[in-house]
Amino acid sequence: MAALHNTASAVQKTDTEEYDYSQRAQWLRAAVLGANDGLVSIASLMMGVGAVKTDVKAMILTGFAGLVAGACSMAIGEFVSVYSQLDIEVAQEKREKRTGANVENDEGSEKGQMPNPMQAAIASALAFSLGAMVPLLAAAFIGDQKVRTGVVVAAVSLALVVFGGVGAVLGRTPAVKSCARVLVGGWMAMAVTFGLTKLISSSGLQM
Asked: Which residue ranges run through the membrane (predicted)?
């Protein structure tokens, strides 16, 4: 009997640890995805400007404007999304109270697990800004356009590999495939933005 009790306790402890890890992993994965979004979108934006403007100031100002706009957009979107989720969970809890489905202990634990819209909004904005800072810092102190473009691509590629690896660890997926997928996707986004901006500029539209 003692052995069975110890085994059951170990299984329960493992389940609790797995649950806690899963909860933390969801937040961390969301942060990694937000940072990756900021990295790719701002790098692509800067590459597009760099295709038609040689001035480093134009690239930095464009990237900074994109950082602020993107962080605000991410924060507002996350706030609205999580607030909607919170409303649904509160409504569900009220229905369960009316039907007597909840016990007092479960009610207390559920309240502690309610989503926090403001926390989610701040985390999303910070994650996006963190990713966006990579191409901005890479381009900030380089005057030559070709060298600047190469440094931005190199810095962004390294960051993509890092974010892809972290995402693979959190999602428990093959690291090589995850890194390759993220890296190729980032390269495609930058190349398409650069190419289309160059094409539009060459057609006669002046910036």
From this structure: 27-46, 58-76, 120-142, 149-170, 182-201
**CA torsion sign, 43 to 184 to 155 to 124?**
positive
- CA-based R_g, the chain, Å: 23
Residue 8 CB burial class (10 angstroms; 0-12, 13-18, ≥19): exposed
Per-residue pLDDT of the chain (207 residues; tens, 9 = 90+): 444 344 444 444 444 444 444 555 556 667 778 888 999 999 999 999 888 888 888 889 999 999 999 999 988 988 888 888 888 887 877 777 777 655 444 554 444 566 688 888 888 899 999 999 999 999 988 888 889 889 999 999 999 999 888 878 877 878 888 889 889 999 999 999 998 988 887 776 555
Report if pTM > 0.85. Answer: no
Between the alpha carbon of residue 63 and those of residues 11, 113, 121, the distances in Å are 50, 37, 21
Q: Please state, in angstroms and rounded to a whole number, the distance separating the CA atoms of residues 139 and 155.
A: 9
Quote the tokens at residue 170: 């959190």
Using the 8-state DSSP alphabet, how is residue 141 labeled?
T
Query: Element (H or E) spanning 207, and its range?
Result: none
Question: Are the C-beta atoms of 159 and 127 separated by less than 8 Å?
Answer: no
Q: How many helices (H) and strands (E) in the chain?
A: 6, 0
